């Protein structure tokens, strides 16, 4: 199996099975075999044991060829005692001490197993409201979020990976202004991403310059008014300052709520790509688009036959995950199996565009995004319908928006995940993001420098006889290829990095993928450090106009420490 050095480091540290002394007791190949066997075994319940070994081989091939990878918890936990396989959960937070601390306990159990949790705090009464049993006053959603945050901090030491949270508050909650500001200090509430839950009514008030009403979550009575534009500006300014809060469009999440009879969707998972009902979980998986290309007469093209086969096997795989998963709570087991949501997505999009010679920031790339994602969602649904013939539709199918149509095994099929770790394992660009920087210089401890070059760029420069360490250092220092004249213009045109792509094209790309994705798209719209508040406002409005389900932005250098830096030596 071809696996990169960084990939091996990540796998050895967290993914490979260990003995009681912490020593790895499996190889990378054995890990994929463990996962393939565990997931294929679910077929025995439907079509007998005869086909399980062959299916396991297919799953094994697809993973070891780096064509498809399931989300991290599946790689870490399948075929092991813990057996918790999902990355995404949403938990309800009710307006009582019992319910609040129950949610904290449930989240701790999920974090321990490598899953991330999303919560809406909108049901909690406002700060200052009366507490009947004590005669005291309530401390409000933001103060309880701090408790959730501390619990996450404590659990993260012993868990499989850092627990992540999403915190959402509706725009009409009386504490909304405090919420917008709650991460003003970069050291605060660091285990949460926060998003304001925006309604259609609010967006209309912004467009018309009207006031809107704040509503008491308990009585549903209006308790005040705010100027919609002022609040919108406050959100935008705060996001410009340090990237938070993001926004999510609640009415759009609920327009695509497949089973409205089960209640409203009020939150997503931590990175925003997976809207879920309370107690639902979802397992994700991503196809590496770099390995879905064919080369004909020296030119690359998308291999739709191979992509179609991979989508079908991936949907089969993810549906099986639901069966073999060991859920951290009985409620989650029941709720998840009623809708059987899965989230198949892609990674390596930017690298694939480079092979195709299409710049990320072009309308051709945006059109191709639609074509590829439409194909994946259509093929994925077709496979879900095939599975339903043998296994039955998801139990709430007749109550769903699809009732009366072709039975489906899964209420949703597609989601675009960030693929933070999966893309390292596969050695490709993450999710549908542009490449952040094509060359990094790493300082190794003994003072030597290690040059890390994006594999697609390396291949193309080498083929043209242009590759040199000196040139790589120049690219690393500049952060972009765009102003390096010794690189031919046709290469510079295609190898655009995140900061070469305008916020407009970042947003257009997100919208293109969203149009054909059942759930949502994980995407950060990157701004240069000198971007203005108006630039950010424009993107927030544009994401609304183009049909995105939410938006997250980040302005370079706007947080004290950030994971990736451009134009600097790491
Ligand atoms: N996630 C988490 N903690 C992490 C990273 C991810 O809980 O440190 C969850 C979160 O719900 C996120 C989802 O996993 O939205 C998918 O993230 P990603 O695609 O980056 O995960 P990968 O499978 O690549 O590890």
List key phrases describing it.
alpha/beta; 570 residues; 18 strands; ten-stranded mixed β-sheet; binds uridine-5'-diphosphate; two-stranded antiparallel sheet
What does this structure look like?
There is one protein chain. It is globular, with a radius of gyration of 24 Å. Strands 1, 2, 3, 4, 5, 8, 11, 14, 17 and 18 form a ten-stranded mixed beta sheet that branches. The chain contains 21 helices and 18 strands. A hairpin with a 5-residue loop joins strand 15 and strand 16 (449-453). The longest helix is centred in the middle third of the chain and has 29 residues, at 363-391. Helix 6 (97-112) packs parallel to helix 7 (140-155). With 570 residues, it is α/β, with parallel strands linked by helices. Helix content is 42%, strand content 15%. The model has no long low-confidence stretch (mean pLDDT 95). The structure holds uridine-5'-diphosphate. Uridine-5'-diphosphate (UDP) is lined by residues 71-72, 87-88, 115-116, 161-162, 164, 269-271, 273, 284, 417-422. Uridine-5'-diphosphate is lined by residues 71-72, 87-88, 115-116, 161-162, 164, 269-271, 273, 284, 417-422.
């Amino acid at each position: 199996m071809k696996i990169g050095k960084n990939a091996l480091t990540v796998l050895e540290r967290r993914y490979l099975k260990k003995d009681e002394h912490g020593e790895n007791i499996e190889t990378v190949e054995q890990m994929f075999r463990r996962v393939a066997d565990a997931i294929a075994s679910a077929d025995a319940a439907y079509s007998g044991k005869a086909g399980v070994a062959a299916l396991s081989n297919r799953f094994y091939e697809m993973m070891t060829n780096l064509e498809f990878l399931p989300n991290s918890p599946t790689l870490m936990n399948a075929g092991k005692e813990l057996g918790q396989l999902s990355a995404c959960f949403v938990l309800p937070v009710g307006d009582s001490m019992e319910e609040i601390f129950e949610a904290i306990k449930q989240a701790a159990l999920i974090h321990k197993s490598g899953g991330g949790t999303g919560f809406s705090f909108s049901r909690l009464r406002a700060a200052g409201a009366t507490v009947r049993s004590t005669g005291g006053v309530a401390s409000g959603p933001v103060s309880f979020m701090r408790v959730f945050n501390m619990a996450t901090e404590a659990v993260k030491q012993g868990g499989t990976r850092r627990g992540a949270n999403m915190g959402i508050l509706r725009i009409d909650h009386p504490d909304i202004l405090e919420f917008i500001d709650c991460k003003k200090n970069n050291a605060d509430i660091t285990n949460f991403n926060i998003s304001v839950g925006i309604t259609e009514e609010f967006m209309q008030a912004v467009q018309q310059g009207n006031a809107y009403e704040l509503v008491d979550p308990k009585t549903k009575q209006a308790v005040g008014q705010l100027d919609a534009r002022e609040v919108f500006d406050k959100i935008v300014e705060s996001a410009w300052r340090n990237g938070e809060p993001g926004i999510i469009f609640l009415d759009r999440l609920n327009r695509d709520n497949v089973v409205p009879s089960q209640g409203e969707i009020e939150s997503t998972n931590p990175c925003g790509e997976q809207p879920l009902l309370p107690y639902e979980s979802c397992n994700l998986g991503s196809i590496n688009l770099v390995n879905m290309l064919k080369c004909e007469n020296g030119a690359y093209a998308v291999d739709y036959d191979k992509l179609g086969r991979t989508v079908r096997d991936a949907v089969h795989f993810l549906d099986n995950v639901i069966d073999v998963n060991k859920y951290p709570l009985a409620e989650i087991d029941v709720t998840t199996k009623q809708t059987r949501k899965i989230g198949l997505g892609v990674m390596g999009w930017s690298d694939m565009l480079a092979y195709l010679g299409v710049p990320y920031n072009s309308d051709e790339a945006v059109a191709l995004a639609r074509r590829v994602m439409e194909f994946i969602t259509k093929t994925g649904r077709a496979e879900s319908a095939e599975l339903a013939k043998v296994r039955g539709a998801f139990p709430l199918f007749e109550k769903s928006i699809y009732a009366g149509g072709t039975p489906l095994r899964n209420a949703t099929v597609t989601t675009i995940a960030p693929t933070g770790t999966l893309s390292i394992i596969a050695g490709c660009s993450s999710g549908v993001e542009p490449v952040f920087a094509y060359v990094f210089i790493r300082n190794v401890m003994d003072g030597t420098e290690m040059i890390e070059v994006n594999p697609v760029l390396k291949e193309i420069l080498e083929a043209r006889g242009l590759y040199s360490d000196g040139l790589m250092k120049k690219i690393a220092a500049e952060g972009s290829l765009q102003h390096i004249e010794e690189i031919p213009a046709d290469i510079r045109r295609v190898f655009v990095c995140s900061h070469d792509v305008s916020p407009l094209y970042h947003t257009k790309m997100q919208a293109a993928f969203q149009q054909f994705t059942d759930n949502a798209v994980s995407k950060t719209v990157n701004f240069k450090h000198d971007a203005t508040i108006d630039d950010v406002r424009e993107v927030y409005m544009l994401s609304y106009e183009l049909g995105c389900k939410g938006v997250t932005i980040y302005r370079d250098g706007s947080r004290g420490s950030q994971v990736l830096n451009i134009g600097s030596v790491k």
